[in-house]
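Hi U.,

Before I forget, here's the chain from the pilot set. I'm dumping it here mostly so it's searchable later in email.
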Amino acid sequence: MTHANGAHADPSVLLRGTRHSAVGPAGAAIVAPCERLSAGASGSYGSDVALRLSMPIDWATAARRALVSGSVASILSTAVLAACGRLENGAAAGPLNGPSQWIWGRWAAHVRRPSLRHTLTGYVVHHLCSCSWAVLHERCRGRDERPQTAIAKAVATAALASFVDYQLTPKRLRPGFETQLSTSSLLGVYAAFAVGLAIVRHSTRPASSSAQVPSDGSERSVDGL
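Structure:
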């Protein structure tokens, strides 16, 4: 659109002028505060979401989530244990027998052949420990499903588990992996454990986590992010 002098008019300026001329001075006095209120509601929604994500979950919820993330972490780390055992000693079951020293004594961690007595027992102990560490991970992770948060918390949990396993725990109650694997392989095992914790995304949350925001007349929830 052009004026008589040929200059182009700014459509946004014309739109604002049309709106104010349509509603009049009294209407404009009402529209402006409403716009500010709408913008404030949107900002409030963002603050509510950030606050909601930062809130911790209860231990019961963390335990339920840990059944999934802990199982995934256990399976992935077990696969790496078996692969490293095969590569280093030609015995995939060897490292898996390590945790059975909790039940059968320290000599059990040196057994390389597969057996129900050592391999199955070792895996059960490893799985239970993985789920126990997963409870702590889920408790610290809370409701925040962002990938960067999951990765950071998973790495921290795996590092803490490694430190406790080999620095604070009596030898009889250690995982026993170290008797048959090198340090580099152990790092790979704990890295796989961290990956297992991080890749699990919890798509369901308690109904109380929903937040309604009247900024646009519709309902929105934290679950929908």
